[in-house]
Amino acid sequence: MLRKYQTSIGSFTRKSTFFWASVGATVGLANLWQFPYLASIHGGGLFILLYLACLLIVTLPLMVTEAVIGRHARHGIVLAMDGMVKNAGCSPFWRLAGPLSILAAFVVLSFTAVFGGIVLAYIFFGATDRFEGASAASATAVLSELVSDPGHYRQFMAWHVFFMALVVAVSARGVVKGLERSMRMIVPCTLLLMLVLFGLAAMRGSLQSGIDHVLVMRPEQVTAASIKAAFFHAFYTLGLGMGVWAIFGAYSTSHTRLKRSILAVVLMDTLFAIMAGLMMFSVAADGSSLEGERGFSLLFVSLPVALSGLPYSQVVIASVFLLVVLIVWATGLSLLEPVVGWFREWTGAPRGWSAVIVGLAVWFAGLASLFSFNLWADYRIGGATVFRWLELVAGGIVIPAVAILIATFAGWCITRRFAATILGNAPVVFRRIWFWVMRLVLPVVAAWIGLQYTLFSLGNLCDNGSAAIWCQEAPASTEAQDGAPEDSQVQEDVPPQTPEEAVLPAENGQPEPDENTPKEGDILYHSV
């Protein structure tokens, strides 16, 4: 058995695979259920420019750092940080970034797989015309029956198992035959399908409505809350803090240009989000049926209702959710990879067994989130379900902590000469910007984002009637909103703060959907 630091975890065979795999990791559900909403209420094209600025100034340096750490060590994030901390002669405290990254990837994947099961079911629902002539109430009832009805939890579990089987089946085949081949197929197919659906939306819908909501610049809508929303979206939607970039950097070929590839990935991710927004608002009548919608409410209620009025709606709805399945599948593969890589380096187990064991553990952990919507919905700790605590711990604590540890270690512990060696052939301007961002900017920004996320999440529980001790000391959310305008748009930057009112009321005498149906605030912002 190979000893520590001698474990071979695999490598890509083509330099372009890093790009395709990274696009698969970054293009997630947030591109569909969050970005269009944010752009529509925060100035359209001006918000996109703010978002790009946040990406280039803050997020991009951290992405490059994680990737080059993995590439330099040729290991996953745990052994990579372990080796770098020893080489730099720094405190072992900084090694925490590795285990925390694996923990974050594991937790986020556990409920990403639950979402994947829902999306798989919706392909079937669309193909069998469950949404023919659908209203908001009937579409919500479909979601409620699948997700929150205790009598149907076994069906929900079956879709969950199906999705995890898709992810594990690919991972078990290895880095080249499994991950590389799949990403080189899944991601281009995803982009091609998006182009087809975008073309359909442009021909059958109102493309001008999409442009008005997403691209037209509206300076009057840009506020301090817009800048906050841009920072949050840039930080939480690119797979940072979960070891994904480190493992892909370790797999990259020696002639892959990491910095150029990462920049291309960021731009592709933004372009995909823009196209998704244009497509969604184009198919809705004047965009009005999707205004103010995001999260579960947008993807699983409003969007099927909007698409049900199109010709051949069965095919269209099934195709849209096939697109979403491909997106979540690629995300699941990306999140599983750092955990499988760590497990192999820790135990020396074969690739196939490692993928199966980790996959089973992820599936089992995902049951806690799955049952939070139905069987365990009434069992709450501090006013929140197990799922809400998992998303709070991962999004508000663990991921920001990893970002702070990596940035502070890179900015203060390693020498500039060693940093230059790691970064490789980079312009002097880039090195200087990287150095000061790592040293001063990113730790402060990550700490602020994590604190805001946590405060908003806890405040949201108080708004929903929690009797937790922090609610008694600091009642409601006005202090946590940090000066944001007191209107309906104050909820844009962190989903956990959204009041649980996304489930639409019953119409035409139909029974009201179960109160445990997922709400807008029941999603992890960067999830997926």
TrEMBL record:
InterPro entries: Na/ntran_symport, SNS_sf, YocR/YhdH-like. This is Sodium:neurotransmitter symporter. It is found in: Membrane. The chain crosses the membrane at residues 12-33, 45-64, 102-125, 156-176, 185-207, 227-250, 262-284, 320-343, 355-377, 389-413, 433-451. SUPFAM superfamilies: SNF-like. It is a multi-pass membrane protein. CDD domains: SLC6sbd_Tyt1-Like. Keywords: Membrane, Transmembrane, Transmembrane helix, Transport. Residues 477-528 are annotated as: Disordered. Residues 516-528 have a biased composition (Basic and acidic residues). It comes from Marinobacter nauticus (strain ATCC 700491 / DSM 11845 / VT8) (Marinobacter aquaeolei). Its main location: membrane. One of its GO terms (cellular component) is membrane.
